[in-house]
From TrEMBL:
SUPFAM superfamilies: 6-phosphogluconate dehydrogenase C-terminal domain-like (SSF48179), NAD(P)-binding Rossmann-fold domains (SSF51735)
Taxonomic lineage: Bacteria, Pseudomonadati, Bacteroidota, Cytophagia, Cytophagales
Pfam families according to UniProt: 3HCDH, 3HCDH_N
Organism the protein comes from: Aureibacter tunicatorum
Catalytic EC class: oxidoreductase
Protein name: 3-hydroxybutyryl-CoA dehydrogenase
């Protein structure tokens, strides 16, 4: 299903305070802010591992869209005998969508996973999100970002308790990738890092410790691969399908570079590259003219139905 593109300004709205309720179980309740494609994957992953999940979205329409996406994925699992109807109902009963930050009270960890349009907007909006989260959770609740090209020290430096903040990057698809990248800020204490390690083990993920650096490991590798694939295509060396097949069949990639670009969103890939280029000044991070041209034409991939490939209304590739 294609994702509705909306402004994320709504995530920064201030909401009145309320009494906090702390769960007695260290991992009883998980919060997710932003339930786009990756936010949905993180939500499903936590719920399928028995955790209560509350996700924040900017409108009731976006909440409805997320639940429709959950239904579609679970129904597909049922069709493939990977899940029963009762298991589907049990998992969905653990998920709650809301526009109210007060519902994060009692969460043991809250993961920000929004989609932004530019580096400058992204930093300021995420800072407001972090402050909104902090207002309603306890002092030892972990606050994490799934962003890879923004550093957690900058995002958390205005909080009252930045020592519990980390970058927790789930690779997509989060339900299948076996690793998570974890980045400490200059403020992060050992107890917060150890708690995140335990959380990752609960989700059957291996923690990859990463020093704080824009792009961490995964994005610094994947973004240039997509960029170089665009150069190869522009030079006429190979076609889209052939370049993707080379990486999938030759190197075991689950998706080719163009399929990855369509999945992440071409605007997201351009933003990654621009952030990395701004940080490091290396021309290998300078976004391909082809990527920029496609973004200008709103050919963003799965979410708009057209990218390097064409997709149906449910996000499945047509050709």
């Amino acid at each position: 299903m294609s994702e509705i593109v909306e402004s994320i300004e709504g995530y920064g709205l201030k909401i009145n305070n309320s009494d906090q309720q702390k769960s007695s179980n260290i991992f009883a309740k998980v919060g997710v802010v932003g339930c786009g494609i990756l936010g949905q994957e993180i939500t499903r992953l936590a719920a399928q591992n028995g955790l209560e999940v509350v996700f924040i979205e900017i409108s009731e329409a976006r909440i409805k869209e997320a639940f429709e996406a959950f239904e579609m994925v679970f129904d597909s699992e049922i069709d493939r005998w990977g899940m029963t109807e009762s298991e589907k109902k049990s998992i969905l009963s653990k998920i709650k969508g809301t526009t109210d930050y007060q519902e994060l009270a009692g969460c043991d960890i809250v993961i920000e996973s929004i989609k932004s349009k530019s580096r400058e907007d992204s930093i300021e909006i995420r800072k407001r999100i972090f402050k909104n989260i902090e207002e309603f959770v306890s002092e030892d609740t972990i606050i994490a970002t799934n962003s890879t090209t923004l550093v957690i020290t900058e995002l958390s430096n205005e909080l009252d308790h930045p020592e519990r903040c980390l970058s927790l990057h789930f690779l997509s698809p989060a339900t299948e990738a076996n690793v998570v990248e974890v980045v400490r800020s200059l403020y992060t204490v050992d107890s917060a890092y150890e708690k995140v390690e335990a959380f990752a083990r609960l989700l059957n993920k291996k923690v990859i410790p990463v020093q704080e650096s824009p792009g961490v490991i995964s994005t610094r590798l994947i973004a240039p691969i997509i960029n170089e694939a665009c150069s190869i295509l522009m030079e006429g060396v190979g076609k889209v399908e052939d370049i993707d097949s080379t990486m999938k069949l030759g190197f075991g990639f689950p998706l080719g570079p163009f399929e990855m670009a369509d999945k992440y969103g071409l605007d997201t890939v351009v933003r990654w590259l621009e952030n990395l280029y701004k940080e490091f000044g290396n021309t290998r991070y300078k976004a391909s003219p082809l990527l920029k041209r496609m973004v200008r034409a709103n050919r963003l991939g799965r979410e708009t139905g057209q990218g390097f490939y064409t997709y149906d209304k449910d996000g499945y590739k047509i050709k």
